[in-house]
Design brief:
By secondary structure, this protein is an alpha+beta fold. It contains 3 helices and 3 strands, in the order H-H-E-E-E-H.
């Protein structure tokens, strides 16, 4: 039945309360990671979603070559 559901047809005319029910019924879980979200939707594999894809600000603690950020913490601690 979910394969036949056109989510956009159900979502667009729905009021906020109805959209809440749709989301609660279809989304099993949302896991929050430092660099992305992982959404588990009923009957489907997990989806990795970047914060920017859903209008959220990227995490400032995630960096390529994370040692630079860790080094910054060490330097700050030494100064105090």
């Amino acid at each position: 039945m979910l394969q036949e559901l056109d989510a956009q047809v159900a979502w667009e005319p729905a009021e906020d309360a109805e959209r809440q029910v749709l989301a609660e019924e279809l989304v099993d879980a949302v896991s929050v990671f430092p660099d992305h979200l992982e959404a588990t939707v009923a009957g489907a594999p997990s989806l990795n979603v970047l914060y920017s894809e859903v209008g959220l600000k990227e995490s400032e603690t995630v960096r390529v070559g994370g040692g630079v950020w860790f080094q910054h913490i060490l330097d700050t601690c030494r100064e105090t």
